[in-house]
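REQUEST FORM: STRUCTURE PREDICTION
Request ID: SP-0412
Submitted by: Lab K.M.
Chain count: 1
Length (residues): 379
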Amino acid sequence: MLDAGMVFCYKCGKPFSGLHYYNGEVNLQIQVKRNLFGKRFVELDPDTDEQLRKTTSVTLDESVMNFTSDINNELTVRVKNSDVKSTLLFSRCCPNCVKNRNEQTQIISSLGLLPTYIIGVMGAPAVGKSCWIHSTAVTKNLINTRSCNSGLYRLEPTKVNKESAQIAKTAFGSTGETNVLLITETATKKPVAAVMLMDMAGEMFAPENRKRFKETAAYCAFQSGLGFDGVDAVLFMDAPDDNGLTDAYNQVSETKVLTNKPVAYVLNKVDTLFDTPPSIPLSNSSDSAPLFTEKTFLSDPFSPYSKEKLINRISLQTYIAKNYKGLAKKILLDNENSAGFLIKTCSPVSQTIVSFADSINVMDPLLWILNKLDIFPIQ
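STATUS: Completed
RESULT:
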């Protein structure tokens, strides 16, 4: 977990503190600070060229002196030096990306305002990692979770996702569908924690990319230091006809980051297995009945996440996962604090668009992890 005031950059993989803003037009980075009386002001970043610091002044535009929230994604700042004398828009940034790569990484709203828990989402390419992250911020799925803790807390998205969307493949080293959900108190509507779902490109874990992997934010996410103890939980995404998860699991296991942390094994595209005979018989009989069908996971539409129903559903999913795939059994046995999940994230609508209207169990792994982290109780 990162304490309030700290931000994990999902682009470069380095944590940082403070509020940093950047304008590429004039190549200036500034910081927002408070004086002794609590009033906010801006100043040039300490790494700014010394001569430029002597000749450049920056002040907040009077029209935005009254901040709309504790953290603003953009600021209007008056810049004055020998080359510039104008009011410019500065966007919130990661100081490490600006300094080391001359890149501006847009920081997701609310990061740094609250304690932040990071869930690393990994697996082979094209198994549905990005689609799963997208599905967790679809309104229908979020509303369904409100029955799982007597309505004490809610999951709120920093960005509501559409029920139909085009989900691009996560490129090597990119942030993909990385998103942040807020846990809020229902009665006060006050946010108490942020949860980052970190999208990791499947190609990063291929054996031929091991050297490149160590240069990515995903690798950094499994390292401790600088006020950061590595990801708080890991979700391994798999698919019925895919064997690429082994590489990802082996690489992550080597970092020892999984020790004592929640580990979710998630088998996506479960609808392709409906009415398929079990690989391991459920009894000594010669009965070849399907292991499960579409009706196996039908939920009460009014309380699908009540404690008893959720626990029973997760127990069933864990049992089926162990019996379906050898790697699933290995992951679940290797990690004491683990569970298995069978989900369907979406259905294709066209060659480029998918629909999340008929998803199955997509919130189960997230709710289980948050409950294990003791930040979103199931009761």
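NOTES: Residues 282-286 have pLDDT under 50 and may be disordered.
Reviewed by: T.R.
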